[in-house]
Amino acid sequence: MSRFEGTDRYIATNDLKVAVNAAVALERPLLIKGEPGTGKTVLAYEIAKAFDAPLITWHVKSTTKAHNGLYEYDAVSRLRDSQLGDERVHDVRNYLKKGKLWEAFTAPVRPVLLIDEIDKADIEFPNDLLQELDRMEFYVQETDETIRAEVRPIVIITSNNEKELPDAFLRRCFFHYIRFPDAETLSSIVDVHFPGIKPRLVSEALKTFYEIRDTPGLKKKPSTSELLDDSADLLGCPSDAMNDPRVISLGRVVGQFEGVTLVSVPKSKIR
Ligand SMILES: Nc1ncnc2c1ncn2[C@@H]1O[C@H](COP(=O)(O)OP(=O)(O)O)[C@@H](O)[C@H]1O
Ligand SMILES: [Mg+2]
Hints:
There is one protein chain. The strands form four sheets. A five-stranded parallel beta sheet has the order 2-5-8-1-9. A two-stranded antiparallel sheet has the order 3-4. By secondary structure, it is of the alpha/beta class. It starts with 13 loop residues before the first helix and ends in a 9-residue tail after the last strand. The chain has helices at residues 14-26, 40-50, 75-84, 100-105, 124-135, 167-172, 183-193, 199-213, 224-234, and strands spanning 30-33, 55-59, 71-73, 96-98, 112-116, 137-140, 145-148, 154-159, 174-177, 255-257, 260-262. The protein binds adenosine-5'-diphosphate (ADP) and magnesium ion (MG). Magnesium ion binds next to helix 2. Adenosine-5'-diphosphate binds at residues 10-11, 34, 36-42, 158, 189, 192, 224-225, 228.
């Protein structure tokens, strides 16, 4: 397959498909921004599936540094082995722990490299990766060799927009913002996850869901994942469940209904 068209488990809007295919064709990293739960991480999984490519995931944390993606040299183990007279000590390669970029650059087939939640790390992180992502190569001092990608991996970078990214980094990426889905898209998303769900329940649930999202002063708006959790709970419900006064509330729920628990936005999230 040479184009990304969405999959039977992932609803991709047209502009998202265009962005993915353009980034792949131009061999530029694709930077995907959007609020949590808009399908950024899952998108990388689906792209990998669509292109039949292995997925290499680098999950970024606040302490992650760019060099973690290249390799780490374990000097402590080497020292210990030398004290124990271990033969391994003579080859420095035994002490180089490959990072995700090394893995991606040397993968036997073109992989998808997901750099997930890049905005978790500090501001130097994206800048420090510029060169490696541009050239798709880096130098290993300990062995005096250059690790170079024969084929450029498909690079997907996600950001929840918690921090601004540096301009120099943005210039090198193909950028796409996943807007929060409209009701029609969201209903298709629920449908791919729960094909058997009753349409009337979905439309009622969506109505309540958007009302809650529009409530002023929410500390955190409910996301697609939370709607999907609710939808799972709705699966066993009779179609008229939403009309039951015991079921509807300002939160998404509501307690027990005929043995089915519907979940709600905790009141604590409403200021
Ligand atoms: N367009 C979509 N099609 C299918 N499922 C989606 C879509 N967008 C979000 N989801 C679902 O919502 C949940 C959250 O997605 P995720 O990729 O973790 O979000 P993010 O990484 O943006 O926080 C997952 O269960 C995912 O399957
Ligand atoms: Mg994610």
